[in-house]
Amino acid sequence: MSTSNPTHLKTLQIKAKGNFTEEIEQDAYINLSVKYGLITLVNTKADLCEQMKEVDETCPLRGVKDFTKEVTLPKEIPPGKYTVLADVYTKDDEKITCLKAQVQF
């Protein structure tokens, strides 16, 4: 993430880089969880290929990829520690990777 001290109404830039050694096809998915301290705010399953459109990529995915996403933070974020967990799976339920990020407001 591009800012070490994210604040309300600022743009947060999220960068990721990965090497897809095997082709990732349609129906791959992400199990996404967002927690505020110990409280789970979001717990959802999302289509990976649909989400890749947000960073101008399409499936199938293969090789080294760099991803950048900018998000404007709303003013309504309560202060505290937030943890984002993303587990990524193939269409055959094989784990591709897991990502973890923590942000303090």
Output the structural class: mainly beta
Q: What general outline do the C-alpha atoms trace? A: globular
What is the makeup of the main sheet? 4 strands, antiparallel
Sequence stretches where pLDDT stays below 50 over 5 or more residues:
none
Mean pLDDT: 88
What is the β-strand count? 6
Number of helices: 1
- The radius of gyration computed from the alpha-carbon positions, rounded to a whole number of angstroms, is 15 Å
Helicity, as a percent range: under 10%
Strand order of the largest sheet: 3-2-5-6
Q: Give helix and strand order, one letter per element, not per position.
A: EEEHEEE
Q: Which percent range describes the beta-strand content?
A: over 45%
Distance between the termini: 14 Å
